[in-house]
Amino acid sequence: MTTLHRRAFLGLTGAAGAGLAAAIAGFSAAPAWADPALVDEPFTLGVASGDPLPDGVVLWTRLAPDPLAVDGSGGMPPQVVEVNWQVAEDERFSEVVRAGAARATPELGHSVHVEVTGLRPDREYFYRFRVGRYLSPVGRTRTAPAYGADPRQLAFAFVSCQNLPAGHFTAYRHLAEEDLDLVLHLGDYIYEGPGTSAIGRPHLPATEIFSLADYRIRHAQYKTDPDLQLAHARFPWAVTWDDHEVENNYADGTSEDAKQSEESFLLRRAQAYQVYYEHMPLRRASIPQGPDMRLYRRLSYGNLAQFDILDGRQYRSDQVPTGMDDPSRTMLGTAQEQWLLDGLSASRARWNVLGNQTVMTEADRDPGPGKQLGNDNWNGYAAARQRLFDGVVERGVQNMVVVTGDAHCSMVSDLKQNFDDQSSRTVGVEFLGTSITSGGNGAEMDTRGREWLASNPHMRFYNGRRGYVRCLLDHDRFRTDYRVVPYVTEPGAPVSTRASFVVENGRPGVQIDAA
Ligand SMILES: [Fe+2]
User: What pLDDT was estimated at residue 25?
Assistant: First the structure.
């Protein structure tokens, strides 16, 4: 499939693809412009860090003095620009420990990705960028503990689905006040749809996005949100995508729009993937190759937690109305599926966390004897889910916790090896996190929630509010707090903990935390 993709893509865009590859390799012919006479503040999109290792982290920014410029340039001239960066142990930068210069190229939208090395494990650092006379805001980040280290605890949060026209990103303002080692974003970082907004936050451009310039403007618009900027500047993030970073419900090379050819959809996907890379704190391993981009990867927090960050969009079989349990169907693709099972087998971590896009547990909406299942999540790929669960059992994988986005609600479920037999083995737990804003204000309970709870005895909780999920891990317990806001259509909502759950080491299944 990949070979076909590349051939189809290169046939369309050979020249542009080669230019991008050269720019990415750092061989852009143009000399870097060390002291550009920028007439406006270029750090309008904030700063970010991501994918912590024990000795380093990725630093990100993108130069955009005019972030919503209609040509997608961010208001930058078509030159390579040198960007200086610093990492310090203190917020005032009196103890700078690493520094350097990076090149922001027009081919990659003047984005900057610095892979800092030589840092100490499990430590807080501060970073900033400089171009000419302009200094960026200061970001804070944190390295991972050393391999084999025995950290006492770890705090992270996971988020998803931030539809900008649907609401204010108030949840991020509260998330920024938490004390976290890491934030996971599980997809729908942007939405590709048109401009309509009931609350005066219309999308730009005002139409569905298709081109490189469109995707750049859209990502830039999201990144100008102050609450989102705050959350990025405060913690390192590990991001993955779902469908809306490209197009609703796409599957591999197949568009939702049946009239669209694979070739033309892959051209769109290539542009969307490139712009996603440009706007995220990702490593060089994720630099797109035509319409392909390696996003699934593994992060390790000593012997306490392993994070397997999944990509459930790029390799999946197309959605089908029937025959969803056909064993030839795949959610992750053969290579990623094998990589996941091998990584889980080899894990020496107490908690094996899967950063996952779409609902994994069986989520039947028919309270009667029949089943009514969604086909865009793991329910539409039941044989692939069974291969994962059987593999987890056969390989003796302990303490698997799946964290999931996409569904715009909070839900907690035990994962059963056989959902038709509730006495079968519990192979893990799924914590579904609600949206930041998608779906608007939401409600405590809704029709889907009532149907799910009535039809799926393995489900333990449902809530329809917006927010994020905070997770606190130690060697004995994996605790989650569902942090929700009562509304998103107005700014300034308070946050509260709606419910808390605990998974105990070696005791499969979720417990409701009475504390
Ligand atoms: Fe979503």
Answer: 45
> Using one digit for the tens of pLDDT, what is the confidence trace for 112-148?
999 999 999 999 999 999 999 999 999 999 999 999 9
Q: How far is the CA of 435 from the centre of ligand 1 (A)?
A: 7
The C-alpha atoms of residue 178 and residue 176 are separated, in whole angstroms, by 6
User: What letter does residue 30 receive in the DSSP assignment?
Assistant: S
pLDDT in the model for residue 17:
46
Give residues with Cβ within 8 angstroms of 69, minimum separation 6: 75, 217
Determine the residue type at 379. N
| Cα of 468 from ligand 1 centre, angstroms | 13
Interval between CA 160 and ligand 1 midpoint (Å):
7
Break the chain down into helix, strand, coil percent, rounded to 5.
25, 30, 50
For position 30, what pLDDT does the model report?
Answer: 56
CA of 407 to the centre of ligand 1 (A): 6
Share of the chain above pLDDT 70, in %: 92
Tokens 């960050």 belong to 309
Cα of 240 to ligand 1 centre, how many Å? 13
Give distance in angstroms: CA of 161 to centre of ligand 1.
4
Residue 382 CA, ligand 1 centroid: distance in Å: 21
Residue type (1 letter), 212: L
Whether residue 319 is predicted with pLDDT greater than 90 in this model: the reply is: yes
Contact status, residue 215 vs residue 270, Cβ threshold 8 Å: no
Provide the pLDDT for residue 1. Answer: 41
- The H or E element that residue 441 is part of is none
> How far is the centre of ligand 1, averaged over its atoms, from the C-alpha of 508 (Å)?
29
- Measured in Å, residue 465 CA sits from the centre of ligand 1 at 14
Q: Which amino acid is at 268?
A: R
Instruction: Indicate the average pLDDT of the chain.
Output: 94
Distance from Cα 404 to the centre of ligand 1, integer Å: 11
Burial class (CB within 10 angstroms; exposed 0-12, middle 13-18, buried 19+) of 445? middle
Is residue 329 very low, low, confident or very high in pLDDT (cuts 50, 70, 90)?
Answer: very high
Q: Which residues contact 187 (CB under 8 A, 6 or more apart)?
A: 160, 161, 240, 241, 242, 243, 244, 245, 357, 405, 406
In the reported structure, the alpha carbon of residue 471 is separated from the centroid of ligand 1 by a whole-number distance in angstroms of 21
Rounded CA-CA distance 153/176 in Å is 19
Q: Distance between CA 41 and CA 66 in Å, rounded?
A: 9
- pTM, two decimal places: 0.94
What are 385-414's pLDDT values in tens digits? Answer: 999 999 999 999 999 999 999 999 999 999
CA of 234 to the centre of ligand 1 (A): 24
Nearest to 387 by CA among 332, 308, 313: 332
pLDDT of 241 above 90: yes
What pLDDT score does 98 carry?
Answer: 97
Ligand 1 midpoint to CA 406 (Å): 4
Distance in Å, CA 3 to ligand 1 centroid: 30
